[in-house]
């Protein structure tokens, strides 16, 4: 991966005044719905993605700490103080310098590039007949990746590139028409297209006049269009004009592409299709898109949205999800590129850059927000207060959603056995905490989570930082209907390696199991640990207290049951699973370990 320099003025055929405020699209944070889109988007296995390992069946795996360290972010301030001291400068001056450089970098012509994402966008633009959805958070650089793709796109492709943020309240078809009008002006001098300009210009100008309420056109085509408006709706006028433009482009031996940034603002629209008129506009737009792509192979359409539930919104408006040919999910900046940017462009030292990456991953905008908050809060800085997710507490309190969250915090995902009936997974998606993906879906930077499992679906956190927030909330919020102070019960029983000369006695509930050639006997009955135990280390301490042992808890070995055998827990931070008297944990004492009572 490399850092690319982008030109200060990024050519956009559509809206020339829209140029590089490098992170103009990074102004808003989380809104409704998150990766719920993949619940629908991956039905056909579209998307663009990548890998990881190990999956776990749905039983919850309680977590202590993907959030690892405490809520206090004082180590951020201490790290900054250390660097400032080494450089013989004041810590506030040091952070101010980083903030200044960060702001300059975010508004400069530089961009942390993601070659594969740009390549995927170019392929979509150049694939006539393909409908593509591009999804990602408001802070992940979709607009600038789009601009890079526009520059890399073949010169034989005429791109109508609209940005709905420049046309608030405008329907999608109207926005495409207005942009096509500007695009026509830009390509009027093209030798291959010049002969078609007069006829297309008349049609488009008349349609623009109609939708802007500018009165009758001065040319015959305009008069015809106005007369037709008395019978047909303005939507049909607009649709006919766009059809004419796209048809003329194809007749010129060129290809066309329609690219709409923040498309959700125009389709379904600002009320999300709740308004009757808006809903009608949305249905017309969907019909046109289907005709241009799947049916007529007239153009390619790329709809970009920061709403992760966008496919769901389109489906509710009437889109057949099978008509979507591809979904591209824009992920965070890769670790190497992010750390390089933080150090070389923002001016952080390596230690401070790593601390920021540990908490905020490759999310540039959130990292900048955290830097601003660190300056304000100093040693009282709380990294988990940077991003607000109002729906997270309710998910943590809901037992079904919480079971998934525990797995997500522990390993980054949670298998979903039945996506239609899993209320917990759906709630997580609706509250913008995470999203559901299907096996076969692809995106950038996600693990391969469908190895060694029969599950075809999984729920994942919406971001790296969200995974840490989930873990933090799990430690502090208990499921609804439970006593927050009630200890968690875990069942255990003692195991022992049999002596060579051991005389088997039925009174000893003997049972032989093997692990790596070792034979264990079950000693006595299983018993319950009533204590606040979260991981293996907690369980060891609880066993030591319960059994009144004279040995240190660290000397106890803990085993879990698996496939009819006992498997030693090697990690003290390993989260405990739900147990009962039969499916309990086992523990082995060293030979010197004896109970005092």
From TrEMBL:
<keyword id="KW-0472">Membrane</keyword>
<protein>
    <submittedName>
        <fullName>Uncharacterized protein</fullName>
    </submittedName>
</protein>
<keyword id="KW-1133">Transmembrane helix</keyword>
<feature type="transmembrane region" description="Helical">
    <location>
        <begin position="33"/>
        <end position="51"/>
    </location>
</feature>
<keyword id="KW-0812">Transmembrane</keyword>
<dbReference type="InterPro" id="IPR027417">
    <property type="entry name" value="P-loop_NTPase"/>
</dbReference>
């Amino acid at each position: 991966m490399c850092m690319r320099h982008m030109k200060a003025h990024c050519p956009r055929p559509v809206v020339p005044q829209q140029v590089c405020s490098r992170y103009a699209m990074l102004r808003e944070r989380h809104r409704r719905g998150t990766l719920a889109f993949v619940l629908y988007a991956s039905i056909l296995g579209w998307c663009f993605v990548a890998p990881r390992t190990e999956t776990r069946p749905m039983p919850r795996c309680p977590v202590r700490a993907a959030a690892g360290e405490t809520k206090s972010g004082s180590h951020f301030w201490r790290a900054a103080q250390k660097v400032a001291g080494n450089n013989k400068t004041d810590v506030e001056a040091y952070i101010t310098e980083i903030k200044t450089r960060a702001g300059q970098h975010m508004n400069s012509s530089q961009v942390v590039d993601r070659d594969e994402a740009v390549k995927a966008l170019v392929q979509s633009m150049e694939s006539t007949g393909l409908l593509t959805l591009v999804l990602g958070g408001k802070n992940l650089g979709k607009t600038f990746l789009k601009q890079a793709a526009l520059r890399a796109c073949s010169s034989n492709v005429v791109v109508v590139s609209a940005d709905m943020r420049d046309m608030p309240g405008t329907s999608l078809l109207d926005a495409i028409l207005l942009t096509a009008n500007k695009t026509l002006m830009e390509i009027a001098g093209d030798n291959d297209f010049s002969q078609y300009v007069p006829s297309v210009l008349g049609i488009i100008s008349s349609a623009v006049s109609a939708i802007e309420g500018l009165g009758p056109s001065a040319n015959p085509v305009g008069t015809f269009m106005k007369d037709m408006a008395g019978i047909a709706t303005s939507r049909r006028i607009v649709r006919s004009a766009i059809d004419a433009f796209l048809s003329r482009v194809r007749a010129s031996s060129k290809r066309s592409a329609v690219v709409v940034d923040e498309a959700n603002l125009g389709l379904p629209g600002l009320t999300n299709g709740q308004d009757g008129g808006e809903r009608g506009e949305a249905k017309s737009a969907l019909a046109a898109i289907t005709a241009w792509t799947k049916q007529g192979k007239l153009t390619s359409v790329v709809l970009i949205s920061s709403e992760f539930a966008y496919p769901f919104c389109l489906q509710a408006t009437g889109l057949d999800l099978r008509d979507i040919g591809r979904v591209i999910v824009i992920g965070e900046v890769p670790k190497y590129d992010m750390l390089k940017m933080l150090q070389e462009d923002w001016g952080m030292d390596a230690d401070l850059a790593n601390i920021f990456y540990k908490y905020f991953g490759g999310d540039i905008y959130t990292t900048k927000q955290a830097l601003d908050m660190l300056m304000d809060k100093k040693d009282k800085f709380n990294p988990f207060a940077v991003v607000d997710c109002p729906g997270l507490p309710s998910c943590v309190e809901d037992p079904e959603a919480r079971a998934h969250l525990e797995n997500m915090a522990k390993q980054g995902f949670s298998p979903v056995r039945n996506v239609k009936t899993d209320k917990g997974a759906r709630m997580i998606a609706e509250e913008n905490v995470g999203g559901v993906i299907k096996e076969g879906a692809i995106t950038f930077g996600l693990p391969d989570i469908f190895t060694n499992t029969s599950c075809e679906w999984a729920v994942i956190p919406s971001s790296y930082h969200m995974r840490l927030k989930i873990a933090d909330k799990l430690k502090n919020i208990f499921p609804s209907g439970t006593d927050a102070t009630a200890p968690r019960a875990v069942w255990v029983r003692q195991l022992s390696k049999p002596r060579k000369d051991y005389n088997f006695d039925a009174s000893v509930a003997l049972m032989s199991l093997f692990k790596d050639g070792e034979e264990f006997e079950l000693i006595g009955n299983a018993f319950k640990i009533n204590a606040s135990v979260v991981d293996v280390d907690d369980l060891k301490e609880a066993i030591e207290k319960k059994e009144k042992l004279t040995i240190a808890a660290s000397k106890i070995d803990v085993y879990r049951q698996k496939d009819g055998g006992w498997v030693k827990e090697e990690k003290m931070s390993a989260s405990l699973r739900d147990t009962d008297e039969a499916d309990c944990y086992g523990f082995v004492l060293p030979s010197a370990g004896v109970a005092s009572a």
